[in-house]
Amino acid sequence: MEIISSFHRDLNDMREYYESGKTKQASWRESQLKALRCFLMEKQQHIMEALMQDLGKHQLEAFRDEIGTLIKTLNLALKSLKAWMSGKKAELPQVALFTSAEIVSEPLGLVLIISSWNFPFGLSLEPLIGAIAAGNVAILKPSELSPASSSLLFSSLTSYLDNKAIKVIQGGPQETQQLLEQRWDKIFFTGSARVGRIVMSAAVKNLTPVTLELGGKCPAVVDSLSSSWDIETTVKRIIVGKFGTCAGQACIAIDYVLVENKYCSKLVELMKVWIKKMFGENPQRSKTITRIVNKHHFSRLNNLLADKMVKESVVYGGSVDEENLFIEPTILVDPPLDAAIMSEEIFGPLLPIITVEKIEDSIRFIRSRPKPLALYVFTKNKTLERRMISETSSGSLTFNDAILQYAADSLPFGGVGESGFGMYHGKFSFDTFSHQKAIVRRSFLTDFWFRYPPWTLNKLQLLEECYNYDYLGMLLVMLGLKRSSKGLFANHM
Ligand code: NAD
């Protein structure tokens, strides 16, 4: 009860602050983006420590996937803010004499950002950058499953930012549900489809627009490559795209690999070699692989391996250390397709390889399952490339690499179908938290008589020519030299 009444008070104050127009000012947006950049730079060590505490995430990964990408995004937002905020001229047909039009982005108002634990800074602050750049007031609700990161965001970030406009609220499902009961102008959610449904149901009450950044199973198709350089590069990129990205606990991490039967053993052998080269004989000791976030997820992953036939399909790794929440990089070949490991999102360091007769069969395989957030295809075959683009659907499609698309500000990041909807990153984040308002400026100098009643057949004919942008036709109708086929309506005129 206490939480709810304090929510109400805070939200009312934030709405009033928004109404004052302060957050719409370019100078305010710029100052907040700069303050956010200061937080990332000055608290870099604290952020790394929090990520180490929550996930055992290596400092390099922390910089690569969170601090570095966020600073890069902030630099872009600061450089582009004026251009993003300025109205864009819209073309009108010549028939709209003495009329001009533009599209102006206006903030939505009070927005709620709910994020996940695997990239607790990246997934919280990347959308927040968009919300601030677009001039909104925002509440951020990070995940309770990365408590050190959430607590740092709560205690430290807020001392850098304007607290009348930006607040961090800590809590789990109960607090999130209380937040969801409030009225928002936008909800931006990153997490599972299960909670995504809860978010959408809550949004229905006030018809609140929602962005859902969800997950799913992201396949990597590996075509047979002839050059040994290409093969090795493919293997290295797959390994880092799986085990070297939060230990596979990433929405765009490779979930499973599809490969031709005859090429499988070569791929597995090379993977074994490169896992050892990257993480050493004892990967746990290397301290370069993130640990599993908590006991619940550890048991969930362990259970995926418990199935007898799944266990028999392990060809590499498989050892687990429950006390330290560590799971060794594990490769499986052809686990049963109806086992949980192939029907649920894995979200951990287990990599099934599924063999197909011909690589083209992978298209049917992918199409028969929910549309993935990311699809990766390693190939030099242009025909396969074309077919993948036109015959599959996914949030993104990357050829010959993995994860890379996340760092590209010029690309929209988001899902399709069950992997979510809406998009962000770079200018897309600004647009996600803006309403694109159509502005029309009309002069009093000209006016068409045929837009006013009483309706006549002649006016209908003129309107028809007008919508076809046929100026000659309009002239001919006016001169009585052209009749349209609208005789049909004559009885009503
Ligand atoms: P989650 O859905 O359990 O939690 C996400 C957020 O929802 C958290 O802030 C949590 O506190 C809140 N929450 C949890 N249960 C709730 C409930 N019952 N009612 C209201 N709120 C609730 O997801 P997660 O475990 O944090 O993340 C894993 C999932 O998120 C995976 O499916 C993954 O693919 C997806 N994900 C997607 C992206 C993306 O960018 N598309 C990024 C990271 C994770």
Automatic annotation (TrEMBL):
In which domain of life is the source organism classified?
A: Eukaryota
Keywords from UniProt, A to Z, are: NAD, Oxidoreductase
Q: Catalytic site residues?
A: E213, C251
For the Aldehyde dehydrogenase domain, which residue ranges apply? 16-439
- What GO molecular function annotation could you give as one example from this UniProt entry? aldehyde dehydrogenase (NAD+) activity
Biological process per Gene Ontology, one example term = response to water deprivation
Family membership = Belongs to the aldehyde dehydrogenase family.
Q: What is this protein called?
A: Aldehyde dehydrogenase
Which organism does this record belong to? Vigna radiata var. radiata
What gene makes this protein? Answer: LOC106777172
